[in-house]
């Protein structure tokens, strides 16, 4: 494994911790600022929208410097945002800090995906991308539960100071391990934007929004759901997040392994199963053991879609992958924002803390529909684009020996 992948995973670990740790601290933050749980949910929505906006903006700015230097600048921005959140005197300032940190998120993973894919052979690209994203998934096994425990024990502000420290480690890792690369040459905004005229790129990004949104519809409000509905103690949320993280790690690695060989079938299975599991979560959330198992499955199935979706965007936007890759990271977080907002709406409407699970199931099912449509369009394109010689060969195989086959060069006898 190239050491550069380890460096990218270190940065991803810090970013993943700050993205997800807010789930376990949402009630504490809401109580400290004296706002409702749905209002505190804007810390998730605001972060996600910041990623959506920051991904293309920071990536475009990054074309002016080397990829290594840009990754280091992004980690610096991430550190500043988390310090602002930790010191925030009012809710609005904390929200601003979350947005500042989020601006680094999409570009880091987008540029990092391109770097990771370029470090390995073509048949190992999805696996390399998955290796980078392992940092994000491991953050949910170690960083997020530990951050939640620290926040519940010492205060949530301490957690964000610790997360800023993780950003420093990520910065040092990139500086030490990522090799120097030349500044991207010949990168033109018009050329990069051309990738978005490809319907398959747009479909992959829509699948990203809806599929990953299904995961966050449930996970954003996991703390009140598990304490109020399942009957877990607040301290148990830490271990539930560990289970979610373990599912993420396993799903991410499996998704990377199979996406290099069976990309679309992997998406069909993962998205279909995710929709079913999220729908069942409305029932299993009332039982501690069943709820814990379901949380593992949501993490595994949700993150099994990450490497194949990211690789599909890179494949379909092969001529201009950098911006498309970063925007797809933004699409993951647009799904987070959408689902967090929708989940807050159904809770505020009085449908209970399990209602976001239905929202997630519908989103995941919608992503599956788009995946089937994308696969059908691809098959039709391949069939329509076959050379005439190939079609003639198939026709020859279909007729018996001694029979003549019309060709493009000979007129058909009448």
TrEMBL record:
Record field: transmembrane: 42-61, 73-94, 100-121, 128-150, 156-178, 199-223, 229-254, 266-283, 289-309, 330-352, 358-377
One matching Pfam family: MFS_1
Key word Cell membrane present: yes
Keyword field: Cell membrane, Membrane, Transmembrane, Transmembrane helix
Membrane-topology annotation of the record: Multi-pass membrane protein
Domain spans labelled Major facilitator superfamily (MFS) profile: 4-382
InterPro entries: MFS, MFS_dom, MFS_Efflux_Transporters, MFS_trans_sf
PROSITE patterns for the chain: MFS (PS50850)
Localization, UniProt: Cell membrane
Keyword Signal: no
Protein name: MFS transporter
Species per Swiss-Prot/TrEMBL record: Streptomyces silvae
Phylogenetic lineage: Bacteria, Bacillati, Actinomycetota, Actinomycetes, Kitasatosporales
């Amino acid at each position: 494994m190239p050491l550069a992948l380890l460096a990218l995973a270190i940065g991803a670990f810090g970013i993943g911790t700050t993205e997800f740790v807010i789930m376990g601290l949402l009630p504490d933050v809401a109580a400290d600022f004296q706002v409702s749980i749905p209002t505190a949910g804007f810390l998730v929505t605001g972060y996600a929208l910041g990623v959506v906006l920051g991904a293309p903006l920071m990536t475009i700015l990054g074309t002016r410097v080397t990829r290594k230097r840009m990754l280091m600048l992004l980690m610096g921005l991430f550190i500043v945002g988390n310090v602002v959140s930790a010191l925030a005197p009012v809710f609005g300032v904390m929200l601003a800090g979350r947005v500042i940190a989020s601006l680094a998120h999409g570009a880091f993973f987008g540029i990092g995906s391109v770097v990771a894919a370029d470090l390995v052979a073509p048949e190992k690209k999805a696996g390399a991308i998955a290796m980078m994203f392992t940092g994000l998934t491991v953050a949910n096994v170690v960083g997020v539960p530990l951050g939640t425990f620290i926040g519940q024990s010492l205060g949530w502000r301490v957690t964000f100071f610790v997360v800023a420290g993780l950003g420093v480690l990520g910065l040092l890792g990139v500086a030490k391990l990522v090799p120097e690369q030349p500044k991207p040459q010949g990168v033109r905004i018009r050329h990069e934007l051309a990738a978005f005229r490809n319907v398959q790129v747009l479909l992959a990004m829509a699948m990203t929004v809806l599929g990953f949104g299904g995961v966050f519809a449930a996970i954003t409000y996991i703390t009140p759901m598990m304490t109020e509905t399942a009957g877990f103690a607040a301290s148990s949320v830490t271990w539930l997040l560990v289970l979610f993280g373990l599912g993420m790690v396993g799903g991410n690695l499996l998704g990377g392994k199979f996406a290099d060989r069976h990309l679309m079938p992997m998406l069909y299975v993962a998205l279909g199963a995710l929709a079913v599991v999220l729908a069942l979560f409305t029932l299993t959330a009332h039982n501690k053991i069943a709820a814990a198992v379901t949380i593992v499955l949501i993490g595994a199935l949700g993150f099994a879609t990450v490497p194949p979706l990211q690789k599909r965007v890179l494949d379909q936007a092969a001529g201009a992958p950098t911006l498309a890759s970063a925007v797809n990271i933004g699409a993951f977080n647009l799904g987070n924002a959408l689902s967090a907002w929708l989940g807050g709406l159904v809770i505020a409407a009085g449908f209970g803390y399990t209602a976001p699970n239905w929202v997630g199931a519908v989103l995941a099912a919608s992503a599956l529909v788009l995946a089937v449509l994308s696969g059908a369009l691809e098959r039709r394109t391949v069939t329509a684009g076959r050379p005439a010689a190939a079609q003639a060969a198939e026709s020859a195989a279909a007729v018996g020996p001694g029979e003549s086959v019309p060709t493009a060069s000979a007129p058909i006898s009448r």
